[in-house]
Design brief:
Elements (H helix, E strand, L loop, with lengths): L6 E4 L1 H9 L11 E5 H10 L11 E4 L3 H5 L2 H7 L3 H12 L4 E3 L3 H9 L3 E3 L1 H10 L5 H14 L6 H13 L3
Parallel strand pairs: 1-2, 1-4, 2-3, 4-5
Helix pairs in contact: 1-2, 2-5, 7-8, 8-9
């Protein structure tokens, strides 16, 4: 499945962190980017001035209470919060393909029920792979994550990603 055919559903993390980096454009290239109302509210609490309407392919969706309710038990097992639960419910209900989330529990649950996942780091790397940004820009954004965003990454993880990107050409 090519990137242009993928329906992605946003959780608040990548939305907030890409906005902190001034890089919401890295959400482009999906067939649709679904944004649950609960997730938008959460993102706006942290980033009131976020330019959500600038996201290419954005579709706002209202969370279906019965779809969310049907997942309560599984969500409790994974320790999900309202936004993550709404995003996964929308993913299932709208036959999405990929959850865009930085939350480890949400990613684990989405993978457990058969969906792809990608977080902020993956979206930056995807932007480079799709030639939306240069290798240097991708490297600089990744290096800036700890200083310019609220995303918490293990230093060893980020160092490994930066080393890998340095080793690749393009």
């Amino acid at each position: 499945m090519s990137a242009g055919e993928i329906i992605a559903v946003l959780d608040a993390g990548p939305l907030i962190h890409l906005d902190e980096l001034g890089s919401l454009n890295l959400l482009a290239g999906y067939r649709e980017v679904l944004l649950p109302d609960v997730v938008e509210s959460e993102a706006r609490k942290h980033r009131p001035e976020i330019q959500i309407d600038s996201i290419s392919g954005l579709v706002r969706v209202t969370s279906n209470p019965s779809a969310v309710e049907s997942m309560f038990e599984l969500a409790a097992e994974f320790g999900l919060h309202a936004g993550e639960l709404a995003a996964i419910a929308v993913l299932k209900e709208h036959h999405g393909d990929c959850l865009l989330s930085d939350d480890a529990a949400a990613r684990a649950m989405a993978e457990a029920i058969g969906f792809q996942v990608r977080g902020t780091v993956g979206l930056i790397l995807r932007g480079w792979q799709r030639k939306q940004i240069s290798k240097t820009a991708a490297y600089d954004l990744l290096k800036a994550l700890p200083k310019r965003s609220t995303l918490h990454l293990r230093p060893g993880f980020l160092a490994n990603v930066l080393e890998q990107i340095n080793e690749k050409t393009g």
